[in-house]
Amino acid sequence: MESADLVAQLTKVRKIYYKPDGSVMVEALRGIDLDVRRGEYVAIMGASGSGKSTLMNILGCLDQPTDGDYFLDNKPVGKMSDEDLSAFRGRTVGFIFQAFNLIAQLTVVENAEVPLFYQHVPPAERRERAMHSLELVGMADRAGHRPRELSGGQQQRAAIARALVTNPVILMADEPTGNLDSKTGEAILSLFEKLHSEGMTILMITHDDEVSERCERIVRLRDGLIERDEVLRSRAKVPVQAEA
Ligand SMILES: Nc1ncnc2c1ncn2[C@@H]1O[C@H](COP(=O)(O)OP(=O)(O)OP(=O)(O)O)[C@@H](O)[C@H]1O
Ligand SMILES: [Mg+2]
Fold this sequence. Notes:
The protein is an alpha/beta fold. The chain has one domain: P-loop containing nucleotide triphosphate hydrolases (Rossmann fold, 3-Layer(aba) Sandwich). The protein contains seven helices and ten strands. A six-stranded mixed beta sheet has the order 6-7-8-3-9-10, sandwiched between helices. It has a four-stranded antiparallel beta sheet with strand order 2-1-4-5, with helices on one face. A hairpin with a 5-residue loop joins strand 1 (6-18) and strand 2 (24-37). The radius of gyration is 18 Å and the shape is globular.
């Protein structure tokens, strides 16, 4: 496969957490090989402690592997300095968390602007892009509200707007429907499906079979290794390569 088609490419990735005295506390990832294609919609599953969040932290450049190689958007993440890595993460990855993680003192639109603030985008452009992002998730009419004035599903949509505001290459979500009732969770999954149909690459950790079955592919972890990697379906709109 052309590497240009790959958004993320992990080779023999290991992650060891050490105790303060330098001894091994736990080998959370024990040799992960994983390719994620542009536009894929992938569920990451596995028992508690199997390494899902550790894997997502590495995929999202929040943490570096102890060993192995990682390319994100064709850039060798392992060779970046901390400063370069955090700038690269800011423009490449959008994060969505189970607990939404909105800032309580800021309005919805101000929350959606936060990633652009870190990119030193000027205020007027920040506001315009944040409003556009809120429109994508159907939250523009709540732009001036504070998080506590919103339902859980609305807070998660605001958090998704914040994740989208930088035009990321990949969206990473750790149990995004975990704090929501099933009807509200359904609205979030429909939104992911819309984003996916528009070409967004999405990786989602979930414990829920009903959620993972709506993805295109399920990667199952067990004790820090990939136990099973199953393609359920491919996107209908796979571009057909013309014969040369
Ligand atoms: N910062 C850390 N320091 C030490 N050990 C850690 C750290 N983070 C995770 N671990 C350990 O690494 C292993 C994998 O943890 P991880 O959080 O990736 O699991 P998970 O699959 O996300 O679990 P859950 O479903 O409970 O969220 C576990 O044994 C955990 O205790
Ligand atoms: Mg976890």
